[in-house]
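Page header: ASSEMBLY MODEL / two components / 514 residues total.
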Amino acid sequence: MIKLIEVSREYPRTGYALRDISLHIRKGEFVFLTGHSGAGKSTILRLIQMAEKPTRGEVRVSGVSSNKLRRGDLPKLRRKMGVVFQDFRLLSDRTAEENVGFALEVTGAKRVTIRPRVARLLAQVGLAARGQALPEELSGGERQRVAIARALANDPLILLADEPTGNLDEWAGKGIFDLFREINGSGMTVVMATHDLDLVRKHPSYRVIELSAGSVVYDSADRATEELV
Amino acid sequence: MPYSVREAIAAFRRAPILVSISIISVSLSLFVIGLFALTAYNVRAALNEIEERVEVVAYLNDGASPAQIAAAEAEIAAMPEVLDVRHVSKTEALATAQRELPEFQELYGGLDVNPLPASLEIRLQPGSRTPSGAEILTQRILAFPFVEEVEYGRDWVAKIVSLQRLAGGATLMIGGAFGAVAGIIIATAVRIAVFARREEIEIMRLVGATNGFIRRPFLIEGLLAGLIGGLLAVLLTYAAHRFVSSTLMEIQWVPAEWIALTVLAGAVYGLLASAVAVRRHLRAV
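Prediction written out in full:
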């Protein structure tokens, strides 16, 4: 599903954000990306979205290679990935419904099909009654739910989340996390960057990849393999 | 209604001030061009009127027989540069002179002889009312043996032609300069509009919108702003025309094609300016 092969990412002014990383995330996995801020979590997510290209190495997502990516391919690839951010990134002048519907409209979906689909998505994230609300009228947790509904709009294969609970209180954060687990339970691959170690510890069954200074310093999948050997 | 059109219209509602600035800058720029066009059109109309009076006059020998004159008249009328030919007899010339020139009356009033020659007044085709056109014709008419002298408003023709050139050149230059300014203002306004919606563009990309899809609403927005600006410019120019006509002097209104062209220019400007602005911005995001 997602493969990073000897990937390095270097920025002209700040140097290496990632150094020689190889990862393989399989379909249906739930992966925590952890590490200090600046360890390279967001860079990995951006590489998977192909918002950036690796300086060296290759990123492969759902059969698309970063080395052979053409500009025209990107929109299609993006529709296979839902992305959720710490700061929600909702359009403040549109209602919850319109924010979710936006992701469908830009793919050229017909209006008649958008309306029921948006209603289903909002119900899925527990906001069936809040469709007419503007983002400013919603709590942080509710805003993140709208963002998740938007991320799920195009039936993605992968859900990428960059510190999705970072701006939320504990209760709201837990609600969001439970939503991710539910989504993963339906078979979707989830990659979640977080520095909330408590959360990671509470869920030992999920794969944990820890980054430090641009390198993988721990991968629970490796340990599992080692233990098997 | 397709998404892009709906979004373009929604942009008017979301950022009314920004869109108004675009529209006003288009309309003011095109209004200036419109005023100039109105002036140029009226100057040209006035010049054409003068130009129409340019004619070549061939003075004839007293010895020319009526048959000869009639033959010459027919032959000259058949020349491609000639619009029509009028024969003015000696008697007619005298009558005209007596009517229009009082001094003539005083000088020749008592004489029995008619000192004035018969003539052929030749009006030229519109395309031939130039110094060279008149000159070529003059040479050809001088070849008739009974033609004594050929005259045309040599200086007049030359002056009119240079005036026309000047008016045309000025229209081109000043109109072009204002056009460039209009383009820059529109592009800037659209760039501000694009910048204001930068967040939206980022999200569109995030959820997998194609570049064409992202671009389209901005292009339509520019097109609409330009179109409305163009229409406003026509209205403003018409108001100016009415004002001048009722207070200063009667002037002509420009032809319908010019109006269509102004509106079209507004639309095309709006479209191009937003195309440039969006393209540049999309590269930057």
